Amino acid sequence: MSAEFYKIDLAINYPEYIANLLNSLKDDYKKIVFISANKRPIRFIEKQISPEAALGVDFFTIDEFVQWIVAKYSHPAPTIQSKLSRELYFLDLIKSTIGEEKPLFGGDDAQLLGWAKRLSSLFDEIDRQLLDKKLANFQYIEAIDEAQLILERLKSLYAKYREDLKSFTYSGDSFRRAVKITEKDEFKEDFKDSLFVYSGIVYLSNSDLEIIKNISTVADIVYLSQTDLSKREKTKGKIGFSTFKVIDELEAKLKKAINIKTKQIKSNTNKETELFFYQFADTHTQAEAIFNILKKHKQIKEPSKLAVILPNQATLFPLLSFIDKDYNINITMGFPFLSTSVGMFVDSVFEIALDVKNREQEAQTVNSKLLVKFLSSSIIGLFKDEITKKAELIKKEIFENGSGSYTFKNGSTIQSLISSFININSLKSLKDAFIELINGIDEEKLQEFELESQLFQLLQTHIIDAIDNLPDRSIDLKFAYQLTKEILKDIQVPFEGYPLKGIQIMGMLEARSLSFDEVIVADVNEGVLPSIDKIDPLLPEEIKVALGLTSFKQKEALVKYNFFRLIYSSSKAHIMYKVGSTGMEKFIKSRFAEQLILLEELKGKKLNFYTPKINLTVAGDSKNYIEKDEEAINYFNSKISFAPTEIDAYLNCPYAHYLGYIKEIKPRISLEDKFEANVLGNIIHKLLEEGFAEFKGKELGKDDLEKIRKNTLRRLDNIFKNHDKETKDFLDKLSEFEKLGLPIILKFRLSNYFAVITNSKDFKPFEVVETEYDRGTFDIELSPTVNVTLWGKIDRIDKVGDVLRIVDYKTGMHSLKPKVKKIIQVSNHLKYDLFNDEELKKVRDTVVSFQLAIYMLIITNEWKDKEITTEFHYIGKSNIIEKGPTSRDIEIYKKLLQYTLNHMRNSGHIYAIPSDRCSFCPYNYFCHFAKYF
Length: 933
Ligand code: SF4
Hints:
Layout: E1 3-9, H1 14-25, E2 32-36, H2 40-48, H3 51-56, E3 57-61, H4 62-73, E4 79-80, H5 83-101, H6 109-129, H7 145-151, H8 154-164, E5 168-169, H9 171-183, H10 185-191, E6 195-199, H11 206-215, E7 220-227, H12 245-257, E8 261-265, E9 274-280, H13 283-295, E10 306-309, H14 316-320, E11 329-336, H15 341-359, E12 365-367, H16 368-375, H17 385-401, E13 405-407, H18 413-422, H19 427-439, H20 443-447, H21 450-468, H22 477-489, E14 492-495, E15 503-506, E16 518-521, H23 541-547, H24 552-568, E17 572-578, E18 580-581, E19 586-587, H25 591-602, E20 609-610, E21 625-627, H26 630-638, E22 641-642, H27 644-652, H28 654-662, H29 678-693, E23 699-700, H30 702-721, H31 725-732, H32 736-759, E24 766-773, E25 777-783, E26 786-791, E27 794-800, E28 803-810, H33 820-829, H34 837-847, H35 851-860, E29 868-874, E30 881-883, H36 890-906, E31 909-911
Parallel strand pairs: 1-7, 1-8, 2-3, 2-6, 4-5, 6-7, 9-17, 9-20, 10-15, 10-16, 11-15, 16-17, 22-26, 28-29
Antiparallel strand pairs: 11-14, 12-13, 18-19, 21-31, 23-24, 24-27, 25-26, 27-28, 29-30
């Protein structure tokens, strides 16, 4: 039989490719079985496949396929065990083996339940990985006591579990059984000469591999995977991005198991994803920003156009609060039951019941806060009228009395609603309590609420029906609460968007194997992508690895693959993350976002960063200034010398200048600015200064520049080998990943700088006259009685022929290019005696920065009557050189500079002049004038 492993490049639309493949293969096989990692891609493929092909293909997710063959080919078929039954079984297993000798947790079953759950999932994985033969009893003295007691008996516990549950099946056990089934003639006969197409399954457990091995003896196999064949992550430096190694490992695993040939499907286009990065302080602002992108695509019908990926399900409801029914949206994701209205309602019922129970003496009394929480739940509104009315009355009473506790009156309907929970003493009474609660609901009202109906249905299946199939046992309220919580914790409410059209909103797992033109990925934060490394208290990582179980590292590699696969397969990707901290949480940008930013840098691309704060727009009629206070008046009146940075800060926004220079409020450095921070700028300046200073006075041709480049890169290496304190402090603030990336970025930027200036078609040999020139100043007259001095340090002064050229190195990305043509016009029409925001804005929007003009003025003292040109050199941008003003314009710049300096002294207000620069302003996090464009 033949087997082929397809490596399909990410630029190819994957579902479309599969649909075409199935269409082309339909006549070659009497049966095609398509097995996918998840359900959603099947919907996309079905939509594109021809009806004849669809009829000939059986579509399954991998779990569905295994469950189906277990049910069909087992004689007799095992019973599928419920989660509740399984957890109680493991509780009893621990109690009856270990607990017999040593009562665990002082006999507290509620605490023991957590260990039962851990053991259950460990044995589930052992089943799926077929590791029972490797299982041993472990003496692991570093593990905590309970884990030690379990690990010491692991082998015998597993043997007992296998024996006790031999007529039941569960997730991993179904895979174990499927291995045996696929060895049988009955199965082989049915699937002889068929084709099995596996898709998007990136990790194969031992049982998966054995199943494939068995199938390959009777059927052909096509194994489809997506990977990066265009080397998108290739960089010159040593830094290695092993994102797609998982596919190579998968290929190797399959090759070891069966005779399979690799086929590479490359794309004809060299599509590069356009990336946009967004930073937020909170979920609400993030949701609003997503909505603002969706607005532009309101009527999208084609499902492959735009997707919103929500790795953190908690973002779904804030996002939905913005979207009305005019939008074509399709939601596909699992939502945690405990976070739904019904989940929270159930939780509050137990909280009240426990509170009442703990009061013993006053069994009619309950904590008012807990009761108000319960009565305020939206679910109370679904109960019969007598209950909802009573709930309102009690709430009113509590608010009027303001007392910390509330005593129920005899026969209160609300009390009877929870009394069955208070009296729980057996599994059966837990079931009855839920039935009684649900009986209080008005069915007619519930029918109008589709989601809530579905949630109550889930409660019915996972708790009420599951208890029905179990023998009764005595339990107390605390245990009942814990058991309910553990069961509900694992329920994901499935949203499956149907019909397939419109904007797709889905979770990260649901997006596997899908490609979209444009994606928005929210919450790209550590702890979400990847999720926090959970320490498993039962089984230490070393033992897991030794046994052959999936390690956290492997799981993280899969999450990483899923994320980058999704990004690179789209044309446009919006990466959103939160930074900063709220009282409860601290947000850190994900290492995945860092990797994308670093790669963009290494490719010399312009980074698109946004910090939207949508609610902060300034209303047209509101004030855009504060009154100038005494401190500001004194500051400007006594200030007699200025550096260009300060004048530019005022020109850009007087309010930002006021906060920084007068109020001395520390600017907040955003994470994006970290690579652009002063120290990084200092390193670049220092290296270029030393590089050019060596050749001062000599006319430099291209060969000399090559020498300077080499010397500079050598010095760069030394900086990272023997760093001074300033560099060390800077490096200490960076993550390991950034530390590794920084020398590569610097090397890339500096090499690129020399390459661009040498290869420029305007290149002319030049002489470096000065580096870091700081000897000059310029006195400028503001009024007959006021003069101020301008000073500054000029990075480099060159002589090109007879002309002097001032060069300033910039490590930031923001363009400071003046609107040279408009400057004369603005100067001619400026009201020089009017010091308001309008006039200053005209100056700002044309001059942009006075820095180079001030440098020109400064050097005119030493180099009189010389023609001067100016340039900003951006070390890091692809457009390296930006030309500034020349000595021809010097008088106009001088006049506008005088105006700006007079504005500082004479304006009655401190104006805020919001602009697109607010996004980068270090005070934007509290500035109420900020405006975002
Ligand atoms: S956020 Fe904008 S308006 Fe506010 S201080 Fe900064 S630049 Fe000025």
